[in-house]
Design goal:
Elements (H helix, E strand, L loop, with lengths): L2 H11 L12 H18 L1 H14 L6 H12 L11 H14 L5 H13 L4
Helix pairs in contact: 1-2, 1-4, 2-3, 3-5
């Protein structure tokens, strides 16, 4: 099983996370750790946690914010499919995250991710 498939499976198990208005549950924190473990090697642990929590906070009113978390993971792993649910705010957050970590991550990885943004007319 590919890492992104395993992560999607974990997301499916956690679709019943309580709303953020009740605070960050242990499930939300556990998923943050799983997301960071998957994406951290690419953009850094702090950046991975940052984009995870910003996405949940921005999309807390939506019925499926974890679908966006999965789409973000897929993007950073080079597995993104244009049918995945990312909106303008998510693309801006990806851009900002890449700008913040641009001096810390592998230049080839940065170039590849920025190229993906350009090919989707998001940069």
């Amino acid at each position: 099983m590919r890492p992104i498939e395993r992560f999607f499976s974990q997301l499916d198990r956690h679709k019943q996370i309580p709303p953020l208005s009740t605070g960050y549950s242990e499930d939300v924190k556990r998923m943050a750790g799983d997301f960071s473990a998957l994406i951290g090697p690419i953009i850094g642990k702090a950046a991975a946690e940052g984009i995870y929590y910003r996405t949940l906070e921005r999309d807390a009113v939506q019925s499926a914010p974890l679908d966006k978390i999965g789409a973000l993971a897929a993007f950073f792993l080079g597995e993104y499919d244009d049918s995945m649910p990312l909106d303008a705010g998510d693309w801006e957050d990806i851009q900002e995250t890449l700008k913040e970590v641009s001096e810390e991550i592998d230049i080839n990885t940065l170039g590849s991710l920025m190229g993906e943004l350009v090919s989707r007319h998001k940069l």
